[in-house]
Amino acid sequence: ATMSKGLAFLAVFFGAAASASIERVGLSPNVNTTGDFPTDFYGVDVSAPTSESAFACMKGLNLKFAIIRCYESLGRVDPSCADSVAAAHAAGIESVHAYMFPCPKCGNPAGQVGALLSYWEEHHVDVKRLWLDIEGTQYWSGVAANQEFYKGLVDACRSNKLVCGVYTSASQWNEIFGTSFQYGNDFPLWYPHYDGTPTFGDFQRFGGWSSPQIKQFSDQGAKCGASYDISWSPTLPA
Fold it and tell me: In the chain, which end has fewer C-beta atoms inside a 10 angstrom radius, N or C?
């Protein structure tokens, strides 16, 4: 049988390992395709130094946004942040964001956000939004302490007039903060579910969010000489 363009892009992208299960991967039947990715809004996130040529290659695949790690779980600014952000802009990526993997056990959430902002100012880093990466129970403490630390991150975003969002899943959120906890849910949500399906049909409410902005649907990105996760949004993330 002839494979649809939507399924073909996933087969080409994921390679032979995906080909055996490609029939289980669905795309909207009304989406037209250009290059490797449909003309909807697909993007990547990276946690390693990424070059202009790599981002230019990704743009050629119709990947339109990039989210770059700028703060590490060790409690320090990622030193490759500025160069990777500049490379994404130079390559013509339409929407460039950053994410922060905080260090809860290091304490001082406002200080961690402040350190990142100082780095951005010094290195002229230009991103549209900072995503707070909330995951990995091994990095966190007890529920009460976790809630206070996270509130500190959100409050630091607000006090610095920083455009922020939250990256997390229901399972991570509930285990770290408890099922009834809500805070910062006025920020947009980016959630992971590696089902290979770029839709929100799997989303279930949690943490006060009734709908997400972005879905990270694969961690298998491996073209263009780089490794990355792949996300989808119905609109270009702002």
Answer: N
| Percent of the chain residues topping a pLDDT of 70 | 85
Locate 12 and state its tokens: 């080409």
The tokens for 32 are 């037209």
Query: Are the CB atoms for 168 and 191 separated by under 8 Å?
Result: yes
Q: What letter would DSSP give residue 139? A: G
What pTM does this model have? Answer: 0.86
Query: Encoding tokens for residue 94?
Result: 């339409």
Task: Give the length of the chain.
Answer: 238
Amino acid at 162: L
Given the residues 40, 45, 78, 229, select the one marked as catalytic.
Answer: 45
Q: Catalytic residue among 23, 36, 83, 133, which?
A: 133
| H helix runs in 15-142, sequence order | 16-19, 52-60, 81-90, 109-123
Other CB atoms within 10 Å distance of the CB of residue 131: 27
Distance CA 223, CA 225 (A): 6
Is residue 202 part of the annotated active site? The answer reads: no
Q: Which of 40, 78, 135, 229 is catalytic?
A: 135
Residue with tokens 């049988």: 1
pLDDT of residue 111: 98
The pLDDT of residue 37 is 79
**Residue 128: strand, helix, or coil:** coil
Per residue in 107-152, pLDDT (tens digit) is 999 999 999 999 999 999 999 999 999 999 999 999 999 999 999 9
- Does the active-site annotation cover 229? no
pLDDT surpassing 70 at residue 17: no
For residue 36, indicate whether it is catalytic.
no
